[in-house]
Design a protein that fits this description.
Structural class: alpha/beta
Number of strands: 11
CATH superfamily of the largest domain: Response regulator
Number of helices: 5
Number of domains: 2
Oligomer: single chain
CATH architecture of the largest domain: 3-Layer(aba) Sandwich
Helix content: 25-40%
Strand content: 15-25%
CATH topology of the largest domain: Rossmann fold
Shape: elongated
CATH class of the largest domain: Alpha Beta
Order of helices and strands: EHEEEEHEEEEHHHEE
Distance between the termini: 26 Å
Length: 217
């Protein structure tokens, strides 16, 4: 598990980082000041820990590219924590606190994040809500049939993997694929008309002689 520690007090950050590393976490630290902070580029985190400095007031929104990471704010009673637009669940731990309490909050939010990862699939702007059976891309709702939804969920769960037509037919329709039919191709074409055709960037790709893959290129 990788944690980003956004620190406002250096000593607190060093103390928390040491304890997290000793408990098996990978931890990156960035400096927080009243002007805000910069997230490391192209880094994905399972949790953001934001240590809000005294007298900082209200920060701009925290936004995390890609997956929705939960946020744990550490703050004094008189500090208003930042808004958390574009991220997952948030939690507030008031100072002073025991490290055992802090670690319990970390584990709780990481469990929440793991549950959300299983319930929501996301590739680029394409998102699949497995609980509400909703699909969207770039905020636009996609009207999928039950089988199209199942087909898309299979492709998204196997992002970057080339899936053969036989494998797709078995997983989605539970039938044996016959090589002299274009059964799977027809359904892929229909799915593309909803997932890819209205958008400039294509996600579902044909791998000649092998099958299909969903990935960003």
């Amino acid at each position: 598990m990788r944690i980003l520690l956004i620190e406002g007090e250096i000593q607190t950050a060093q103390y928390l980082r040491k304890g997290l590393v000793e408990n098996g976490f990978a931890v990156d630290v960035v400096r927080m000041d009243p002007g805000g902070f910069n997230l490391p580029q192209r880094a994905e985190y399972d949790l953001l820990v934001c240590d809000v400095p005294r007298g900082a007031g209200r920060f701009s929104e925290i936004r995390c590219e890609g997956r929705q990471a939960p946020v744990l704010f550490l703050a004094d009673r008189n500090v208003v924590p930042p808004r958390s637009g574009g991220v997952g669940a948030t939690n507030l731990l008031l100072k002073p606190f025991a490290f055992t309490d802090f670690l319990a909050r970390v584990h709780g939010l990481l469990r929440w994040g793991a549950d959300q990862a299983r319930l929501t699939l996301q590739v680029g702007g394409l998102e699949l809500d497995l609980v509400r059976h909703r699909a969207s891309r770039d905020g636009k709702r996609l009207d999928l049939t039950p089988k199209e939804f199942l087909l898309l969920s299979l492709l998204m769960r196997k992002t970057g993997e080339v899936l053969s037509r036989a494998y797709i037919a078995d997983q989605v329709w539970e039938i044996n694929f016959e090589s002299n039919t274009n059964f799977v191709d027809v359904h892929i074409r229909r799915l593309r008309s909803k997932v890819d055709d209205p958008f400039p960037a294509k996600l579902i790709h044909t791998v000649r002689g092998m099958g299909y893959v969903l990935e960003q290129r």
